[in-house]
Amino acid sequence: MSVQPAAWFRLDNAALVFPAVAGSRYTTVFRISATLTRPVELDRLSTALTRLARRTPYFQVHLRRGLFWYFFEENSGMQRVMADSRNPCRDFNIRGAGRFAYRIRAFGSRIALEVSHILTDGTGAMRFLRSLVAEYLRLGGCRIDAYDDLLDPDSEPDPEENEDAFDRYYRREVPGPDAKGRAWRAPSTVDRHRYFVTTGRVSTTALLALAKSYGVKVTPLLVAMHMEAIESSMHASGSVTRPIRVLVPVNMRSFFPSSTMRNFFLYVDPEIDPRVGEWSFDEKVRIVARQMELGLDRRQLQRHLVRNIGSERNPVLRVVPRTVKDWILAYVYRRVNEPRFSGSLSNLGAVRLPESCGDHVKHLDFMPPPNPVTRTNCGVVTFGDRTSITWASVAHDRTIEREFFRLLVSSGVRVELETNYTELWRDACRTVTDAE
Amino acid sequence: MPYCYRCGVKLEDDALSCPLCGAVVPEDSVPSERCWPVDDAGERSNFTRQPGAARILARQILLVVFMTPVLALLSIRAIAPDTADWLGYVLVSLVGIWALSTIPLVAWRNPAAIVVGEIATTIGVMVGLDLLGGELAWSLEIGVPIVVLVSVVSTVVTLWVVRLRERGANVASVILAAIAVICVGLDVIVSSYVHGTPAPGWSMVVVAALSPVAAFLAYYHRSLRVRVPLGRRFHA
Asked: Cβ neighbours of residue A201 under 8 Å, at least 6 residues apart?
C-alpha cells in the first residue's frame, strides 16, 4: 500500500502535555542504546539512518505552534548521526523549524537513539532503534531472513503506524480513575546541566530466578526494590510524611492492539504507606505484585485513557489559546501530576533482534527522561541474558541507586556497574564490593 | 582504519577529522574503551535548517521592523489628523522601502520578477509621493521616465555582462557606455521638463570624456582576447 507522508498531523493524546513542560530542566527526552561487539562504522550508520528515515515519515517531522494546539509538520531537513555526550538527554531543543524530535548518537561501539516523548514512547523508540541496528548490520553483510515487527527500509509505511491509538480506543461512558494525593520524594539538590547515569547489568536468568523465588514477575520485584531504596532515603531524612508511590508505565499495545509508532502508554502506580507501619521487603513485593495485577487490566487502564482523552475533547478547553493551555498544562503537570510519584520504573521487557544480528549486539540500555520533580528514575530492558537496569538522575544524592544495587547484590545477583561519572563509579564499585 | 579518539567510532580510511565532533584523527588511532565521552561536545545538534528558513525569517524581521513605525504613524494620524501633514510622506517611504527589501526575498531565484517588482515599486512610491501634494505634478513627467531609463539601461547592461563569454576590461567599457547613455537620457528628460524642449547640454561633456575611455577599454580587451601583445600593436 502506498502512503504519502502526511504534511502535518496532530500530537497524540499523551504527547499534548510535553511541549508545555519541555525545557532545559524537563527535556522530555529519553534514550535507548545498543552496544555492538565492534566499533560503529560511521558511514554505514549514516546510510542505514537515511534508508530508515524514508521508511518512517512520521518521525521526520518538527514541532510547530498552532493557535490552539501544537502540531507536527513534515521536516524536509536531513537527519544525521551526531556525537555523543557525557550528559545524555540534555540540551535538546525541539522547538522551531528544522529541529527533529529525535537524534541518533554514536560513541565507540554504541548506537543511541535520544527521542522526545512528544514523538513516541519507549516501545515505538525501541522498534525504531532495533530496525536501525538491523539495517546497519545488514549493510555490513548480516543476513535478515524475516523482519517480523522490524521496519524494512524497502517497504512502505503502514498508515496504522501513524495513528493516535488513544483516540481509537476511547469510550465516553467509562468513568475516570480515582484521584491520588502527593507522594514522598527524596530531598536533594537538582542539577540543571548534568545527568547522573548509573547502569547495572545483570544476568536475566539470575533475575528471573530471584523473581520466581518470590513468586512474582520481574517488574514487581524491581519496583519493590525501588520502594525499599526510597524508604531507606526516607528514613535517612527523618521525614515520614507521605506514601511511597512508583509510576510504572504500561505499553497499551499489549491490551489494545495497535502497531502505532507514536505514544500509546499509560501507567499503574503501586504504593506503600510507611506512615501506617513498617513493611518487610517480602510484604512490599506481594503488595506491589497485587496492585500491579489489579491495575494491569484492560478495563482499569481504559479509565485512565478516558480521563486523558476526555480533557482533550472538552469543547471549552479546545478553544483556549495554546499559550494559555501551556501555562495551565505546565502548572498541572509540575504541581499536581508529577508530585504524585516518588519515582518511576519503566521496563521495556525482553527485546529481540533477528537471530543473525543478535550475535553482533552485546546489550541494550534504556534511560528515562530527566525529571526535576521525581529526580531519580529507572529504565529496564532485557536483551538475551543481559538485563540492563539504568538509573538516571538530576539529583546530586545517589542514595536510591546505591541502596537499590546493594539490595540486588545482597539477593545474590551479580551486577556489572557503569556510570558516566568517575567519582560515582568508584563509589558504586565500593558499594558492590561491600555487599558481596 | 582510523578511529576518532573522542567518539571511538570507525571513520573512513582517508578521514582527517571526525565528522561528529570535529576532532583531528591521529595516524595511530585505536578504538576507545571508555563508556562515556569526557565532555559535552556535540550538544544542541538536532537542528538542521529548513530550506528557505533564513529568507522566511528575514521577511518576518523586515515586516516587524517597518510595520511597527507604520502602525505608530497611523495611530498618530488617527489621534491628531490636522497636526501631522508630513506623515503621508514618511508612510509611503517606509512602505516603499519595505517592499523593495522584501521583493527579492519573495521572488527568490526569479530575476525577471525581482526587476519588474522593484521598478514597479519605485514608480509606485514616486507617484504616491507626488499625489500627496494634491495632484500629479512631476512624477509622470520626470520621475517615471528617469526610473524607466535607469532601470532599462541597468538591466540591459547586467544581462549583457552576465552573458559575456569573457569578462575583463570589456565590462568596464560597457558600464562607462551605460553611464554616458544614462547621463544623456537624464539631460534630455530634465531639459524637457524645465525648458519644454529636449536640448542635451552638459551630458555631451560626459559623453566626450567617457567615450574614448570606453572605446580604449573595449579595444584593449579585444587585443588581449586575440592574444596580440600591446607592444606589437602600438609599435612605432
From this structure: A363, A386, A387, A388, A389, A415, A416, A418
pLDDT 10s per residue in chain A (436 long)? 444 544 788 899 889 999 999 988 889 999 999 999 999 999 999 999 999 999 999 999 999 888 889 999 898 888 899 999 888 998 788 887 788 999 999 999 999 999 999 999 999 999 999 999 999 999 999 888 888 889 999 999 999 999 999 888 888 777 878 888 999 988 888 887 889 999 999 999 999 999 999 999 999 999 999 999 999 989 888 888 899 999 999 999 999 999 999 999 999 999 999 999 889 999 999 999 999 999 999 988 888 888 878 778 888 888 889 899 999 989 988 888 889 999 999 999 999 999 888 899 999 999 999 999 999 999 999 999 999 999 999 998 888 999 999 999 999 999 999 888 765 555 544 444 444 4
Domain end: A168, A184, A208, which one? A168
- The number of CA neighbours under 13 Å toward the Cβ of B37 is 25
Least Cα separation, residue B101 to chain A (angstroms): 23
Of A40, A81, A98, Cβ closest to residue B49: A98
* Domain count of the fold of chain A: 2
In this structure, are B75 and B90 located in the same domain?
A: yes
Pick from B35, B45, B51: CB nearest A418: B35
CA distance B106 to chain A (A): 19
In A, minimum Cα distance to B23 occurs at A83
CA distance A212 to A223: 15
Contact A60, A75 (CB under 8 A): yes
Tell me the residue range of the domain where B72 lies.
Answer: 54-137
Show residues of chain B in contact with A367, CB under 8 Å: none
